[in-house]
């Protein structure tokens, strides 16, 4: 009997089950091989921004972390991803046999759905997809030159600071001692995620829940630093000016 049958995973939950395991396996591989970019190499941590080709904004932490690990593992140079439909809009399609990064999302009706995100290197015409994605990029990286320092080995605190750096363009630093404690904490979460149902420790949080909190932490850190630098105020003023600018442009076009 298969492990899935032993676990009695409901059919509607299968996608979530397999995507959670894919994410956990990517993290486990990154930790064991010391290739995860959120772990320090020669004292440095490497923030990697990955954006959605359809929305133009950074992925949230639940998709960002596995996508960063997939990119690193496969050696991809691109920093954008898209699903099957987006590839079609770009005038290309996914190569046969390619596996994407699985994500869960809510559709407009509030239903939980799953999708797979692919890098341009996984498509038949990567140039077309890159060109399409570039026209949609909206993510602003306004903290270039700033540094976030990871001070806690707790999973949400550590990864939240890392994702904040990824999304904002900032660099990130961490001491070897904090990084080692974090590895132990994250490994415990990942191992529990991959354990059989009867062997799971209910006291250990689910990886997906931790990554959800990670994203909230990252957003708060970025907003906080932007506020400190007065960038948040500038952004609010810029947003206020956009409707006025559109009205002026509309008025000028009518005058012509």
Structure description:
The protein is mainly alpha-helical. It has 9 helices and 6 strands. The strands form 3 sheets. It has a two-stranded parallel ribbon with strand order 1-2. α2 runs antiparallel to α7 and α6 (155-168) crosses α8. The longest helix is centred in the C-terminal third of the chain and has 25 residues, at 231-255.
Q: Report the total helices.
A: 9
Bin the helical content. 40-55%
Mean pLDDT: 86
Q: How do the strands line up in the largest sheet? A: 1-2
Number of β-strand runs: 6
Q: How much of the polypeptide forms β-strand, as a percent range?
A: 5-15%
* Category from helices, strands and their pairing: mainly alpha
Strand count, sense and barrel status of the largest sheet are:
2 strands, parallel
Termini Cα gap: 74 Å
H/E series:
HHEHEHEEHEHEHHH
Which outline best applies?
A: globular
Low-pLDDT stretches are: 1-12, 237-256
Rg for CA atoms: 20 Å
Question: What is shown here, in short?
Answer:
This protein is mainly α. Helix content is 52%, strand content 9%.
Topology (SSEs and partners):
Layout lengths: L2 H5 L6 H19 L18 E2 L8 H14 L5 E2 L2 H6 L11 E6 L5 E6 L8 H9 L12 E4 L4 H14 L2 E4 L1 H19 L12 H22 L2 H25 L1
Parallel strand pairs: 1-2, 5-6
Antiparallel strand pairs: 3-4
Helix pairs in contact: 2-3, 2-7, 6-8
């Amino acid at each position: 009997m298969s492990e899935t049958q032993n676990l009695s995973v409901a059919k509607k939950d299968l996608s979530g089950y397999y995507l959670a395991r894919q994410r956990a396996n990517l993290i486990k591989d990154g930790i064991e091989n010391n290739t995860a970019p959120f772990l320090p190499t020669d004292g440095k941590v490497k923030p990697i921004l990955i954006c959605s080709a359809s929305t133009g904004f950074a992925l949230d932490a639940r998709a960002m972390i596995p996508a960063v690990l997939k990119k690193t593992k496969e050696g991809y140079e691109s920093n954008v991803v898209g699903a099957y439909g987006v590839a079609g809009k770009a005038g290309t399609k996914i190569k046969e046999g390619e596996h994407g990064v699985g994500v869960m999302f809510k559709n407009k009706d509030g239903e939980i759905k799953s999708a797979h995100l692919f890098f341009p290197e996984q498509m038949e015409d990567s140039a077309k997809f890159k060109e399409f994605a570039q026209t949609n990029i909206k993510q602003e990286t306004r903290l270039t030159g700033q540094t976030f320092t990871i001070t806690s080995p707790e999973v949400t605190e550590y990864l939240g600071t890392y994702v904040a750096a990824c999304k904002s363009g900032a660099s990130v630093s961490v001491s070897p001692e904090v990084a080692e404690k974090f590895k132990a904490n994250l490994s415990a979460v990942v191992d529990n995620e991959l354990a059989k149902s009867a062997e799971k420790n209910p006291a250990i949080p689910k990886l997906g829940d931790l990554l959800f909190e990670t994203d909230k932490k990252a957003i708060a850190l970025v907003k906080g630093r932007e506020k400190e630098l007065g960038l948040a105020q500038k952004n609010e003023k810029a947003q206020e000016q956009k409707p006025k600018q559109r009205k002026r442009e509309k008025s000028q076009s009518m005058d012509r």
